[in-house]
Amino acid sequence: MEGTEAASLLGERSLGPPARFKTYRRRWFLLAVVCLLNCSNAMLWLTFAPVADKTAAYFHISLETVNWLSMVYLLISIPFGLVATWVLDSVGLRCAVVLSAWLNMVGSITRMFSVLKFLSLGSQSYWYLFIGQCFCALAQPLIIFSPTKLAALWFPDHQRATANMIASMANPLGILIANLLSPALVPEGKHIPLTLGIYAVPAVTACALATLGIHEKVPPTPPSASATNSNSQTFFTGLKMLLRNKPYIILAVCFGGGIGMFTCFSALLEQILCEKGYSNDFAGLNGALFTVCGLLGAFLLGMYVDRTRKFIESTKISFCLSALASIIFAVISRFRHQAIMLAITSSVFGFFGFAIYPIAMELAVECSYPVGEGTSTGLIFVASQIEGVILMILLQALTVRVSEDSFSTCALDQDGALDWTIPVLVLAGLCSGMACFYVIFFHTDYKRLHAETISADLAKAEDAATAQVPES
User: Structure pTM?
Assistant: First the structure.
């Protein structure tokens, strides 16, 4: 049935022989711009998470208020995520990238107003910081959804997973930079103004490159058969198709939950570790290992899947191993003087967890084809933000106030530090449950690959028929 459906869809448009497909060197420039933009947005998102205690002290606010600087990304992305999917699939990739670049730059500059002494903002300074984060949060869905669309429109089928991996992993690269750079730049709260200025530089650079360097929303000649049908379904038609697609719904719930858990882990890591006596620098190192190993895992898995097309098997194995790592981290993080084990566990957690991300995005397109790439990946991202908000609120609600501990490195407020034992155990349990559900219930056909195989067979048949026609 899947083959019949794919064949009928391809039959609606003449795809022609493979010789009509073409790649352009400027696709690498587009990839570089999207990577820089993705990296910058992630840096702006988690600027304050590794130095939450210093930020709270500098702006005279609570840790919960600091957490809202990260959580606002999740809240704004939920409604705007649907708008972003429409922009990508209806208006085009160029508009999405340029718009996100401007929102990202405006947000990074607005944040700097919060630390300008001559404005004498007083207690209002935090709100400039918050509004800047809101602008950056508006840019995030457009940036996050772009890699799959870029890979589909500009890269041939044997480079799609790799291109998607490179562009998608720029986001955790930004998380890595934030985890390393923020603790290094902010040994004391007085260094926050300089930090905001440094973080604005990549945003301004990405905006200039996107505005001046991107001129086309699609290449003149498509690189693959599926690229010719990239926008074959309207936004609302595609949305209805996705909501009736059982494998896609399972992928959205499980993978969306996984993204939400990784979001919480990245945003709350410093607070989880400081109560047990681990420094901000060590928390930043763990975040860095988490991300570096994730980048390595994503690169290796992306190359493997590009050659084998084993999307399902790769994601199921990686999901299970990341769940196991989350359980080990939840237990070890509750003990002091376990720096080496925590570093190893964070590395394993990142290696298998981040590796799933670009492959699952490609898998979303495979199981939902011919729905537009922006819609299929966008709905998963919206689901992840909803689940991330619920998780962030739940985990913070499950914390327990504890009296001052001589071992704690947290910057304590008047109510004492927070004990994260129950939240991290709950997080590990949810991760394990999601992994089991995904392994048992997720099954699908690779619709896009199947459609391209049919296209290639039809092209070969046309070539054979042409060769058999006698010359007049």
Answer: 0.72
